[in-house]
Amino acid sequence: MDRVRVLIADDHPLIRQGLVKVIRLDPSLDVVGEAADGEEVIEKAAQLSPHIIIMDINMPRMDGLEATKQIKQRFPDIKVVALTVEDSEQKVVEVIRAGVSGYILKDVDPDALASTIKAVYKGEMVVHPGITAMLCRELGQESSEAERNYGPCGLASRCPGGSLDVSLTAREVQILKYIASGVHNKDIASHLFISEKTVKNHITSIFRKLNVEDRTQAVISAVKLKLVSL
Prior knowledge:
This protein is α/β, with parallel strands linked by helices and about 230 residues long. It has helices spanning about 15-25, 40-50, 65-75, 90-100, 110-120, 130-150, 170-180, 185-190, 195-210, 215-225; strands at about 5-10, 30-35, 50-55, 80-85, 100-105, 125.
């Protein structure tokens, strides 16, 4: 695997320095720059072309949420990992919807940080299990509100004939539950005694049936459809 180019954005110098030291312990990762606020990280993204941005959400001048939105609009190939203290459930949902590819907490283990960066680089969505639970609670509330206002499918335009047929197999639902718990493909394969390739094939089928593009969207759809719960 090519060295992953990482840009770190955090307004606290000590945190940036700590992240640089931790990330540089892995020879497959390369810290290409640092930024202290949202405006600077957008400038550095244009200058340095990182693969991954580790983004603090609460920064001066422009916060990480707005910076993420602008980066995803201007540089859609750059992936963003939100690194923050546990925030409100509504804030978590806003950050996920802004287009981050990962959401982890600042007390993350160094090895977990490195594995998260590499997983996101390969196209996976990584969300801390505690954050996933918060996300699902918030979306569950949204889903209940939508059912009260618009019926069981939330919006009629999404449910021709008043229903939505999502025919996931028992194995697909099982794998979807693992995804909702933040388990990686390799560990899912180990738990189910199947190959990692088979897991990927099942996930491709899940994405197609739910009409989604990544793991977080799949979890969101599954919670709203009451296919899984946390």
